[in-house]
Amino acid sequence: MDSNTAPTSPTGTSAEDAALAAVLIKNGVLTADQVEEARRFAEDHRREFKQAVLEMNLISPERLNQLAFERLRALAEAPDAVPAPAPAAVDGQGKGQGEAAGTAILTLPDRNQIQRDVRKELQEQSQVVPVPALVGQILERAIDCRATDIHFDSLDNGMRIRYRIDGQLQDILFIDSATAAAALSRLKVMSNLNIVERRHSQDGRITIVYNGKPRDLRVATFPTIYGEKIVIRIHEVLTDVVGFTHLGMSKSQAETMDRLITQPYGAVLVAGPVGAGKTSTLYNCLERINSPLRNVMTIEDPIEHRMPGVNQTQVGSGVGEMTFSEGLRALLRQDPDIVMIGEIRDEETARIGIRAALTGVLVFSTLHGSDAPSTISNLYNFGIPGYQLSSSLLAIVSQRLVRKICPQCRVAYAPDEKLLLSLELDPEEHESTRLYRGTGCPACFNTGYIGRTGVFEIMMIGEELRDLIFQQIPRDVLRRVAVDLGMRTLKQSAVDKILEGVTTVEEVYRVVSF
């Protein structure tokens, strides 16, 4: 048999196995002969096809997972090459909107005989895509691809499904209108939402266990002109306490945080834009100090991780719902030792939180700020006097998330003098320095990046800074003094990541202001 020719579907394989074999051949991972050999191995040893290719060392588990979204496309494809439109999707001329969905699917790489057999098998099982299986595959493949969010975007002719991987949205799949409606209903049922409510947004949760690890999925619907949009935020339920270095902090920064979280009272604030990982840092702090000897309480909107032993409360802004400030006032009557405020959003919440830190409570919270010194200015703008801030603040942590270079396609290069100067590095001292970038490969979806890590700036509030904060000195002076006292700025920490080969110059320019 010609190894470059796709075989017919191996007998005895399931639809999913056949789809997997097709993807392996299409991507040049295996030849048709190797697929047939693996099929025989699976039959002889009573193994699944996927398990057989792994045991034969034909592919690594990581590479197999990287191809998972291709299997998803194969499973989601309608039984016919051009799916028949739903009756409601036919216009006055009898032209179905589903035609556009068929065109979108056919723009993918040519399907071989194995995938045609998959369509035939699905057609024999039912005349529609099995929606529960499809939804399950979408969720599982998102976890395999390290996605943090899944976007279900309703369009005029169907639905686009995208994953946010390492902070970037990527198109994954297109499904026709009929399947989209069923998928939305399935997700609403799974998250205990009202399936007939389409004019107002709703929030729900799904808890699943995948590969032995629990995942908490936060589901949010939103009405659009073409139908509902659903975004699912994926959270891995915290089961182990990880060190601060795991988040991306340097050894000295991690030691500083370890000292901070053991203080009896005061305020530790984490600043940064949306999506910078602020809440993850706070959860890490709480997990490390949570103890039966302490009354740990949180007030959040929404609760992103559920932590055993921690009294968590969710607030909202709807009619009749408890607000941050109302909830915080009630919470402080519960004799707390440690309080985590999800976000300081207004003057009243800021005042109550700072007052709690002054009265013997260890307070953690987040707020928006470009860096640590500017966060002090934001608190001034909330009307908090300098004398209260100087007495209550322990530290301000500012952070960003940068993508990490893919280890599979990582290559070194010699930076020129102009680049080194832009990073505030001495060209003579770094004459032999090599920086790194990713060229793009299947492992990283041709982006050059896999995973993300934090870049941190920790401003400890010592006596010198307390005096300046008491006087409400401008942030530029605070920054200069903090640096003189040993603070590593966001920019300096980011350059450290570049020199260590963790991330690229381009990524740092994208995330950190220079």
Structure description:
- By secondary structure, the protein is an alpha/beta fold.
- It has three domains: 15-70; 118-234, Beta-Lactamase; 245-511, Rossmann fold (3-Layer(aba) Sandwich), CATH 3.40.50.
- Helices cover 39% and strands 22% of the residues.
- The protein contains 21 helices and 15 strands.
- The strands form three sheets. The chain has a seven-stranded mixed beta sheet with strand order 9-8-10-11-7-12-15, with helices on both faces. Strands 3-2-1-6-5-4 form a six-stranded antiparallel beta sheet, sandwiched between helices.
- Helix 5 (68-76) packs antiparallel against helix 8 and helix 8 packs across helix 9 (177-190).
- The radius of gyration is 27 Å and the shape is globular.
Percent range of helical residues: 25-40%
**What's the alpha carbon Rg, rounded to whole Å?**
27 Å
Given this structure, which CATH class of the largest domain is correct?
A: Alpha Beta
Low-confidence parts: 1-13, 78-128
Q: Strands of the largest sheet, in order across it?
A: 9-8-10-11-7-12-15
List the helices and strands and how they pair.
Elements: H1 15-26, H2 32-44, H3 49-55, H4 61-66, H5 68-76, H6 98-106, H7 113-125, H8 131-144, E1 147-155, E2 158-165, E3 168-175, H9 177-190, E4 203-210, E5 213-224, E6 227-236, H10 244-247, H11 251-260, E7 266-271, H12 278-289, E8 296-300, E9 311-314, H13 324-331, E10 338-341, H14 347-358, E11 362-367, H15 372-381, H16 386-392, E12 393-405, E13 410-413, H17 417-422, E14 435-438, E15 449-460, H18 463-470, H19 475-484, H20 490-499, H21 505-511
Parallel strand pairs: 7-11, 7-12, 8-9, 8-10, 10-11
Antiparallel strand pairs: 1-2, 1-6, 2-3, 4-5, 5-6, 12-15, 13-14
Helix pairs in contact: 1-5, 1-7, 2-3, 5-8, 8-9, 13-14, 14-16, 15-19, 16-18
